[in-house]
Structure prediction request, 884 residues.
Amino acid sequence: MLNYFLKRLFVMLLMIVLVSTMIFFLFRTMPGDPTAYVVDPSIPPEARQQLLERYGLDGSLWDQYKVFITDLARLDFGDSFFYNRPAIEIIQEKLAATLILMLSAMVFAYTMGVFGGAWMAWRRGSRLESIGITVSLIFRSAPTFWVGLMMILFFSVQLAWFPAQGMRTAGTGGGTFAEMFLNLDFLRHLILPALVAGLYFMATPMLIMRNSMLEVMSEDYIEMARAKGTKERHILYRHAARNALLPVVTAGALFIGASIGGQVLIEVVFSWPGLGREIVTAVTRHDYPLAQGSFIIISAMVMFMNLIADMLYALLDPRISYN
Amino acid sequence: MKRINRKKVWLAVMIAVLMLFTACGDDDTNGQDDTGSDIPDEEMGELVPDLTFLSSLPEANMVNYEMSQEVAEELQALGVNAESQPMDFAVLLDVLYGDDMDYDAYTIGWSGRIERLDPDMFIHSINHSDNAGPGGNNTNRYRNPEFDEIADAQRREMDIEARRELVFEAQRILAEDVPKITMYSRANMQTYNKDLFEDVINIPGEGLFNEWTPFSIKPLTDETVLTVASNVNIDDMNPLSSISVYGWRNLRLIYDKLVRLSPSIEPEAWAAESWDVVDDTTIDVVLRQGMTFHDGEPVTVEDVKFSYELFIDENVEYFGSFLTPIDTIEITDDNTIRFNLVEPYAPFITNTLAQIPILPMHIWENIENPVQYTNEDAIGSGPFKLERFQTGEELVLSRFDDYFEPVHIDGYIFQIFASPEGVLTALELGNVHMVSYDLVPSHTEQIENNDGGRYDHLELTEGDDIGFFYIGMNLDRAPFDNKQFRIAMAHLVDYDLALDVHLNGYGARGGGGLTIVEANEFWHNPDVPIYDTYDPERAREILAEAGFTWDSQGRMRMPVE
Prediction:
């Protein structure tokens, strides 16, 4: 197991170098250069040249690459062109906002999904089952920005229950983590976007859970439990659901990996200052360090969570081993 | 099987019919265009080359996109093979400013920033032949020695009335030569909460969130902190590295400047008590007494000298052109700074003195790499103190009580939104009090219609823009090197369509050769006739008079030399 883990870790490192290289060249093949976005076109050509030097873009592509990859080895993503600060600092700030939003959404989606899915399988063929499937699929297929706008219209504008956007009331909040995130104002701002994201993600765990439950329910030991006269709810949660949970766990682990990119549309609709929005603007602004850094971290995260999912698999299902 | 076959047959028939129609259509127009020239094709001039109009993507600028399509169609109707090619803004800039200068024509715009109220930008930078090379702002490659002389002269003329005469003359030449065709200017439609605040100021090219509104605005209720909505990000708080427009609009409220342009755009001594133009290349500035920085240190002439020199030494890109005319800066007495210029530079007071912020020397002299400095606790001597800057979220500022000019609000918050929709909701709910950008047309309409009184508390403001959007032409290339062709082109642009249809009437009309628009009252020459009528028939006449001919297939041919 440990051997396997180390081997995978090593492959992962190689992959990250490869991905970083690809990202590096990908951004540089994009048409236009960073000076076009950060400064007005009216600046004289010499000034443009100066700016390129300041950004370290005056050397050959190969020289730039060498600098990039050696810096990367020291986990230095460089300074964001736009913000004039280390890219990693910006990413950290934004990542916190995104992760809190996505994890809240995940808790909602997976709680609803696991219990709802199990229950739907148990009540197979009932009208409630088809309503459940329909509702979850509607939220899955409806554009999130539309659902978001409707939620804002209803809960913020009509009912005035929740704030319409942002992470906190303007002008409040301070520098420390606690001041920024551990307060009621933040929580009030979190509910709507988390709900919209949660409803969107709910279908995956719910349908996986339902399918895998249906499979499990046809197993002999369920029949056995029934024959013993065990209570229905007991069979549902103790015997069936526990065994059906496996694929949901994998999906969940992968979800965390992918979630750090955020849900751009939700972040835009709710003006949530998350990483997803930041990446989009970084790419359009040609802010290479910030965009590169974000993509590298996202891909590393996806790979790592994949590995975790595989490991979890072995732990949860004794039939799987990596030796 | 049978069914599918039948379908296929139908499809084939339809395609055939369609093709027949298109072919006939071509024949028709050709027949019409054939103006019955008796000269055989081979004796006519060269064909007018195929023309490509580069333009913006529809999502970036719908009006430019549509207008360039229209103009291409007009040219096609005249027998020129013209097409419009939309492209990303950065790519367009690359083409226009690249070394190859490989393009025929394009649509783009100049935004109406406040320093462009000084005519130097629109007269000299974008029309002088010195700037017609690769990377220069004269992307029309317009070269006229007579014009160059006047453009240079207005830059050196320190007397404002005499300079105005020169600028008027320059506009006359441009209107005659038509190096570019101005299509339209946008009106700056903005809004604020009139129930909560009063006394806002609207400045051409700047709108409501200018450098005066925060001074003048008064709260009407106990809401004493103004919240301003933005839909673009701010970069950083370092005046030497900040290059975003809104970074600057906030920094100039934290840092003071010697001169501020008044709401009627006249230079007003501000942190300076007065200035004196000793001679064409010597300007003395007397500093106002008793000012302090936000940390309590006094503002001295040393700080001013240090700031200007720092900006010059650090080669700050944004201000390069304003600073290069400065030769030396000396302190002549406790209160006076003398600027010695290399050569006379008319925009010195309106642009240079009105742009460079005064930095506290006691802080910046110790900083090793000033351009890289993040300046998180910016200390200036302006009317507002920086409280907090949360990247991508908000900038919080409070009133600086020791400022010499009274400010009526306790502070303001510059809040960053991800989309204009979010801002509209926040405006409706009263969470923000003012926008800092031009409303998108649909929101202007929504507020104007005021459905169910939802926007009763909002006041819509309209300001004129001094910037404009235009069709640029590469004058190094045929047929744009022919002045008559450019004049004919000016008759192919439907100026009313741009304004009335595409802009819903919120804006101003353009015209061929128009450079300084009416909104810039002081510098606009109202007596110059510009080509601003849409008249394709007249265009055809102008072309015919200029010797352009149409061959048997209706294609336009260049005049024979």
